[in-house]
C-alpha cells in the first residue's frame, strides 16, 4: 500500500540549486487589489452579478509560483502574490475572480489532514488550518504555467534549459524534477519526455 503523506517541497530541493526569479516577477510592483466590476441592478433592485466574474477574469491572469501563486493584471503587467499561508476564504475569493468561476469540486484528504479545491483547468489548491499550503496541476490541457513558462506538457529540454537550475532524478514517483521551489514529474526518462505533473508547497501525494 502506498503511503499517503504531506510532501514539503523544500525538503526535495537540491541545496546547490539556485532559484532564479523571473525578471517580470522581481519588478517589485505594488500588488493591485483584486476588484470586481461595479454591479448593475436588476429590476427588483438586487445587484446583478452575472458577468462580473467573467469580466474580472478576462482582465487578469493566474501564474504558478514556487512560493504560492501570482495574479497578473493583463493591461498593466502589475501583479499580486498569493503566498502560501493566506487564509482559505481569501484565497478562494481571489482564485474565483481570476479563474472566472468557483472551484468545480472541493474535497478532503483525511490521511493528509488537508482539504482541496479543484478547478476545471486542472488547478488544485491545497489547504490546512494554516491556510493555502500548496498547489498542483496534472492536466495536459491546462493553460496554467509559471511566469517563466514552465507548465504541464513542457518538454524535458525546456525544463533543463529554464531560468532556474533544474535537477532531474528517478524517484518512487517516476522521473522527478525540481526547478527552484517548483517540482514535477516527466512522463518518462526519454530525451523527448514531457512534464506530466507540477506542484509546489505541501500537497497530498502517494510515494
Order of helices and strands: EEEHEEEHEEEEHEEEE
Extended strand count: 14
Helix content: 10-25%
Instruction: Give a quick account of the main beta sheet: strands, pairing sense, barrel closure.
Output: 9 strands, antiparallel
**Structural class given helices, strands, pairing?**
mainly beta
Mean pLDDT: 79
Number of helices: 3
Shape: globular
Question: What's the CATH first level?
Answer: Mainly Beta
Which spans have pLDDT < 50 for at least 5 consecutive residues? Answer: 1-52
What is the radius of gyration computed over CA atoms, rounded to a whole number of angstroms? Answer: 18 Å
Distance between the termini: 10 Å
Question: Could you say how many structural domains there are in total?
Answer: 1
CATH architecture: Sandwich
Strand proportion: 35-45%
CATH topology: protein yfey like fold
Walkthrough of the structure:
The longest helix has 12 residues, at 88-99. The protein has 207 residues and is mainly beta. The strands form three sheets. Strands 1, 7, 8, 9, 10, 11, 12, 13 and 14 form a nine-stranded antiparallel beta sheet that branches. Strands 4-5-6 form a three-stranded antiparallel beta sheet. A two-stranded antiparallel sheet has the order 2-3. Helix 1 crosses helix 2 (88-99). The protein contains three helices and 14 strands. The protein has one domain (4-13, 51-206): protein yfey like fold, CATH 2.60.460. Strand 9 (123-128) and strand 10 form a beta hairpin.
Amino acid at each position: 500500500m502506498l503511503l499517503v503523506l504531506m510532501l514539503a517541497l523544500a525538503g526535495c530541493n537540491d541545496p546547490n540549486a539556485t532559484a532564479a526569479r523571473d525578471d517580470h516577477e522581481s519588478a517589485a510592483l505594488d500588488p493591485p487589489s483584486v476588484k470586481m466590476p461595479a454591479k448593475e441592478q436588476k429590476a427588483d433592485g438586487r445587484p446583478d452579478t452575472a458577468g462580473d466574474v467573467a469580466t474580472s477574469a478576462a482582465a487578469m491572469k493566474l501564474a504558478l509560483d514556487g512560493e504560492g501563486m501570482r495574479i497578473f493584471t493583463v493591461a498593466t503587467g502589475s501583479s499580486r502574490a498569493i503566498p502560501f499561508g493566506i487564509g482559505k476564504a481569501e484565497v478562494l475569493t481571489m482564485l474565483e475572480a481570476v479563474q472566472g468561476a468557483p472551484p468545480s469540486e472541493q474535497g478532503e484528504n483525511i490521511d493528509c489532514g488537508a482539504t482541496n479545491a479543484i478547478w476545471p483547468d486542472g488547478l488544485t489548491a491545497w489547504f490546512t488550518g494554516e491556510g493555502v499550503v500548496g498547489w498542483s496541476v496534472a492536466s495536459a490541457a491546462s493553460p496554467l504555467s509559471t511566469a517563466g513558462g514552465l507548465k504541464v506538457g513542457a518538454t524535458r529540454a525546456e525544463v533543463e534549459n529554464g531560468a532556474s537550475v533544474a535537477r532531474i532524478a528517478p524517484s518512487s514517483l517516476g522521473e522527478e524534477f525540481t526547478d527552484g521551489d517548483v517540482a514535477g514529474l516527466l512522463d518518462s526518462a526519454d530525451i523527448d519526455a514531457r512534464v506530466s505533473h507540477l506542484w509546489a508547497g505541501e500537497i497530498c501525494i502517494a510515494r
